[in-house]
Write a structure and sequence with these properties.
Blueprint lengths: L9 H12 L6 E6 L18 H8 L4 E4 L6 H6 L10 H5 L16 H9 L10 E6 L11 E6 L1 H12 L8 E2 L5 H19 L5 E4 L14 E6 H8 L12 H4 L8
Parallel strand pairs: 5-6
Antiparallel strand pairs: 1-3, 1-4, 2-3, 4-7, 6-7
């Protein structure tokens, strides 16, 4: 099957991923543009919303976009590249808050630890006025995705972790960090893309969506695996000759759509 795929043929790539991984939904990708998408879904311009519920629409076939003209959650604005800084008091927000003023998430023990986490986060400016998420098969050679997100359960995530390392030296081709959900599916893949483009390094994939604040928008058995487009093509061209075509993967492949 892989021998029949031409690079930049995204409908064929999606078909391959569905077949080899046993996916029952479309992987999704994103890229930036200065042209507002037509016949697409976006959030109301007033009010702060999480992007995760909207991305569930993309998994079902819709096109969704966000822009600098409306407010996602403050973290989302930063991670999508439309705001240069996170909220004031972010260290307190990540820890136990400020009594009577700010409720904390309690993800870090102290504000100092929260601030130290934020200090290590790299801001990547948005690559256009709009960031557009669409099913993988909707992309083209002239309009490729910046990165691709695969949603799946433990079986799918296991397969992708192994596949990411299949044609590389070592076993560290995947990053798993504590981070915002947006960071794991947008910011970190863009950081990896910059490493690839400017330093000639091999981009790493990201096993993500560990953010407790985003988990309510996902099935409890579902995580995300995000990689640059080049890394995905690297994996796709090797899939047919890999473990994905033999047991024990073939024995468990039928479980991927059944959740927990």
């Amino acid at each position: 099957m892989t021998n029949k795929i031409e690079k930049d043929n995204y409908p064929a790539l999606e078909a391959l991923l569905r077949e080899m991984l046993g996916l029952d939904e479309s992987p999704i990708g994103f890229n930036y543009t200065d042209d507002e998408p037509k016949n697409a879904i976006t959030a109301k311009k007033k009010g702060r919303v999480c992007i995760y519920p909207f991305l569930n629409r993309v998994r079902k076939g819709d096109v969704v976009y966000f822009s600098k003209d409306w407010k996602v959650c403050r973290g989302g604005e930063f991670y999508l590249g439309y705001r240069k800084s996170l909220m004031k008091g972010i260290g307190h927000f990540l820890s136990h808050g400020i009594p009577g003023r700010l409720e904390g998430e309690r993800f870090k023990k102290t504000p100092e630890l929260g601030n130290a986490l934020v200090d290590d986060i790299q801001f990547i400016p948005a690559g256009g006025d709009y960031i557009v998420f669409r099913p993988l098969s909707d992309f083209t050679q002239d309009n490729p995705p910046d990165a691709v997100i695969i949603y799946g359960n433990g079986d799918v995530m296991s397969a992708m972790v192994v596949m990411a390392n299949y044609a590389r030296v070592g076993n560290d081709a995947v990053i798993t960090n504590f981070s915002s959900g947006c960071y794991s599916i947008v910011t970190e893949p863009r950081i990896q893309s910059n490493i690839e483009k400017t330093k000639g390094g091999e981009p790493k994939a990201i096993l993500g969506s560990f953010d407790i604040a985003c988990r309510a928008s996902l099935d409890p058995a579902t995580m995300t695996f995000t990689m640059t487009t080049n890394h995905l093509w690297e994996m796709a061209m090797e899939m047919e000759d890999s473990f994905l075509s033999i047991n024990p993967w073939k024995k468990i492949r039928g479980r991927v759509g059944k959740g927990a």
